[in-house]
Amino acid sequence: MAAGSLLALLDDIASILDDVSVITQVAAKKTASVLGDDLALNAQQVAGVHADRELPVVWAVAKGSFLNKLILVPSALTISYFAPVAILPLLMAGGVYLCFEGFEKIAHKLSHSSEADNHQAALSAALADAKVDLLALEEEKIKGAIRTDFILSAEIIVIALGTVAGAAFSLQATVVSSIALLMTVGVYGLVAAIVKLDDLGLYLLLKKGPGLYGQCQRKLGQQLLAFAPLLMRSLSVIGTLAMFMVGGSIIGHGFPLWHHGATQIVSWLLALPAMGSALALLAPLILDALLGLLVGGVSLVLFKLGKAIKPNIGWPAGQ
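^ that's the sequence the OP posted. Answer follows.
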């Protein structure tokens, strides 16, 4: 009897762990869409820091990110337990904010390109000036990165919570906590690798070994130095596109008419003889992105109008 009870308990535990694994994978796929933007923003926050201080800065921001999660995860789970009806409005608000942030980023890029160049030039000049307090500059960057992380972490946790909204509370807690931990370790591990990629390239480029092996090392170093800035730019573009697709998907699921229409379009495409399957795979992504662009544009216009009426209105900066 005792052995049977133990086996039954182990079977229950295995079943729960299997459920956690499956649901965590689903939640991870949804929250991973924010990952590109998260990576780009955090890697850019470290830009301008001296090479020997890059990893300490990343570690300092990572510790701040863990603290953010310690605040956000219990808060989200408390809302889920005591006011589960608030999850959908929070999820929709998070989707609108993602679209707003993505559209605002594009608008800012188009209208302030010269301002960004001037800012970069001023930063380079400051780093070259011996009188500049580099420690204070570093601390300012760390605080800015932690603030950015708080916003992105809130988005990730709300999306993860929405994925498991109908599950038992213990399963919600396990999945959301797992996502928070995995995303923090994954993001800052990759950020650390990205910011040191150019250093690795320079190290390999300066290798003086003879023969084919030495030539291969120097060639690889040259390629890494060329690849590092391209990676940063591509992460930023992918992250912005993901914001529209994720935000549009969240909002679309909140409106049955839109969701039904998108499903109908996919069904029509599947019936096409030639490229139907491929188009059916792309259609939801395109529709989500278009809805995200529309919502982002409208929300930005409304925000600008509100700011014109009340100039003291503020908004947390996403970049």
